[in-house]
Amino acid sequence: MTTVLIVDDQPLQRFGFRMLLESQDDMAVLGEADNGTAAVRKTAELRPDVVLMDVRMPGLDGVEATRRIVAAGDRSRVLILTTFDLDEYAYAGLRAGASGFLVKDAQPEELLAGIRAVASGDAVVAPGLTRRLLDAYADWLPTPGAGPGGNRAEGAPDPRLEALTEREREILTVIGKGWSNAEISARFRLAESTVKTHISRILAKTGARDRVQAVILAYDTRLVRPAP
Prior knowledge:
By secondary structure, the chain is of the alpha/beta class. It is built from 10 helices and 5 strands. Strands 2-1-3-4-5 form a 5-stranded parallel sheet, with helices on both faces. The longest helix is centred in the C-terminal third of the chain and has 15 residues, at about 190-205. The protein is globular, with a radius of gyration of 18 Å.
């Protein structure tokens, strides 16, 4: 059973989500919140598998709520919902630690599949859409050669990549370019199960939470450069 907390400041929107989720035998709605502050509090209390998080809310918005939920180290994973598939809130939500995002006008089956994917530890943002997001907001990324503190020397290796093998670094690079597992499998002539193993090792070694965070890492470390 996948448990969900619904966060949205629109009562009708919450009602619609609840009706959809409660129609599924494998999902249960633990509660609702109409703002970010309540979302953080109820996530700590209820510990849902997935927090379905709106971004644009009065007071504490969904981005900051996501950041606080992730920072708390709870098991709950956040799925961002946004009105537009390319806006700064969605990007900021991913940087805050969300496991992915969907647009609010997604088909019901897409939303359900997204919740199930996030609950199982996967990311739900399509690779190509992730690439468009990061390209659109590339100016938010650190300058080449700068680490988290902005003082890494030009050309110095990023410590987050040091534990990766050459093949793992190659795979992280193409993940950053938006390649699917099937495309990686065909390009490197690997079984898809082997690709998944490599990706799991990349996540473990770099501390990335999921595939979305791995894409962000590829940009942060300049393995992938934004499209001109």
